[in-house]
Write a structure and sequence with these properties.
The complex is a heterodimer of chains A (210) and B (232).
Chain A lengths: L4 H9 L7 E4 L18 E4 L3 E4 L22 E7 L2 H9 L5 E5 L2 E3 L4 E2 L14 H7 L2 E5 L11 E2 L14 E3 L3 E4 L8 E5 L5 H7 L6
Parallel strand pairs in A: 1-2, 1-5, 5-8, 6-9, 8-10
Antiparallel strand pairs in A: 2-3, 3-4, 6-7, 10-11, 11-12
Helix pairs in contact in A: 2-3
Chain B lengths: L8 H5 L8 E4 L9 H10 L4 E4 L11 H5 L3 E6 L6 H8 L4 E4 L2 H12 L4 E4 L13 E4 L2 E7 L5 E9 L5 E2 L8 H6 L4 E8 L17 E4 L17
Parallel strand pairs in B: 1-2, 1-8, 2-3, 3-4, 8-10, 10-11
Antiparallel strand pairs in B: 5-7, 6-7, 8-9
The chains are: A alpha/beta (210), B alpha/beta (232).
């Protein structure tokens, strides 16, 4: 049984530590917010300019001036602060954010990541993704292990335009967890999902790992 | 005292618009966008615009209105995924596009407004963003050179403003507005509320950056993704 999206997010949440400031990307990574362990003090940042993201608002709490980087309505909490986009990216690029969980289309065995563009299709833009991978101390990628046609998304080399080169520390898929220290050397297979064998992971993965 | 406050957007923009100009606009998505001034720029008919803005609005609101009327020649943005007319014009090669990483865009505007010609950043190293740009190694890490951005006109949306031109923004509607306010000598601000004074301790944008201002006529504040939770 492979992990489902929420189980993948729960696995990513185990990388959080008390006192961390964290930025969560759009898509599966947003599910990490609901999996932060009770009692753990984790502050979420959204790059449009808020530190201390609360839950989605109730119908009564909706405020058009209060959105996250995915342009979803959100709420503030005790200790929240607002700031300009320049200040927000100073936090990101200045190395003040401890960890970011991002989605990806491809990750390469050397830590390259591609998650912003498919040539020939519509180009939406990179938004803050390139800043996050360049500036945040630890980058955890959450993605399906293979694309719909079965192609491995954890590859020898990225085929899509890069978001960043050698920036990924951990890859969590529906099948397995890979990580490496100090962005050096090969990724190691840390865990497999319940009921999934190391051989199955190997067969589904193009990237070299140990 | 210089009279910064104008009766309406057309009067505030008078003499500041010309074909082929560069306009920087505040806002993130549809949050904190200068709705009133965008409508007035549309109505002015000024064209061949280069517009610097993180996003390009949606098909029928925000900067999407100026795309629809074909007044924009080029966008400098970080993310334009919410706009089908943009996609159509871009794929038909009717529209030029320069993508910037969001933090690079914010810092380019800040730098331009602060008289800083360029800065080195790690963002974009090893990607298409770095192509053709100077690269330098600092402390063993590679950085690329990005340049400051200035505009002929800046348009911003604020929550409160006083007659001096001091501005206060609200929540995440602040976003790009403070930097955009600085990156031009001609900044026009629209405020939701004109107030007698703003506590000097909490002014976000000091009056020097605001040349003209109006009380906003349009405060629709459309929401792109209305997500709610059940009452706890």
């Amino acid at each position: 049984m492979a992990w489902d999206r929420n189980q993948m997010a729960a696995r990513a949440a185990r990388e959080l530590k008390d006192g961390f400031y964290v930025n969560l990307g759009i898509g599966i990574p947003t599910l990490v917010a609901g999996n932060i362990p009770q009692g753990m003090d984790v502050t979420l940042q959204s790059e449009n300019g808020i530190l201390g993201l609360g839950p989605y608002p109730t119908e009564q709490e909706i405020d058009a001036d209060l959105i996250n980087a995915g342009k979803e309505t959100i709420t503030e909490i005790a200790g929240s602060s607002y700031f300009s986009s320049a200040d927000s990216f100073a936090m990101i690029r200045g190395g003040h954010i401890d960890l970011s969980v991002l989605g990806a289309m491809e990750v390469a065995e050397n830590g390259d990541i591609a998650n912003w563009m498919v040539p020939g299709k519509m180009v939406k833009g990179m938004g803050g993704a390139m800043d996050l991978v360049a500036g945040v101390r630890r980058i955890v990628v959450l993605m399906e292990h293979t694309s719909k046609d079965g192609t491995s998304k954890f590859r020898k080399k990225c085929t899509l335009p890069l978001t960043g080169a050698n920036v990924v520390d951990m890859v969590i898929t529906d099948l397995a967890v890979f990580a490496r220290d100090g962005r050096k050397g090969p990724f190691k297979l840390l865990e497999v999902a319940p009921g999934v064998t190391a051989e199955q992971v190997k067969a589904a993965t193009e990237a070299h790992y140990v | 005292m210089a009279q910064k406050l104008h009766d309406d957007a057309a009067s505030a923009l008078k003499g500041l618009l010309f074909d082929g100009m560069t306009i920087a606009a505040g806002g993130f998505g549809l949050c904190g966008i200068p709705e009133t001034l965008i409508l007035a720029i549309r109505d002015s008919g000024v064209k061949n615009l280069t517009v610097i803005s993180n996003n390009a609005g949606v098909d029928d609101w925000g900067l999407g209105l100026l795309l629809r009327t074909r007044q924009i020649k080029k966008m400098i943005s970080s993310y334009v995924g919410e706009n089908k007319e943009f996609e159509r014009q871009f794929l038909a090669k009717e529209l030029e596009l320069e993508f910037n990483p969001q933090g690079t865009l914010a810092e380019r505007l800040r730098a331009g407004g602060a008289g800083i010609a360029g800065f080195y950043t790690r963002t974009g190293v090893g990607t298409v963003v770095a192509e053709g740009k100077d690269a330098k190694v600092f402390g063993g890490e590679t950085y690329i050179l990005e340049t400051g951005l200035v505009a002929d006109l800046s348009i911003v949306k604020a929550w409160k403003g006083d007659k001096y031109g001091n501005l206060l923004f609200r929540k995440t509607a602040r976003n790009f507005n403070p930097m955009v306010a600085t990156c031009s000598r001609n900044t026009v601000a629209e405020v939701e509320e004109l107030v007698p004074s703003i506590d000097a301790n909490i002014v976000h944008t000091p009056s020097i950056y605001v040349r003209r201002m109006i009380v906003a006529k349009s405060n629709e504040k459309r929401i792109e993704k209305r997500i709610t939770r059940k009452e706890a």
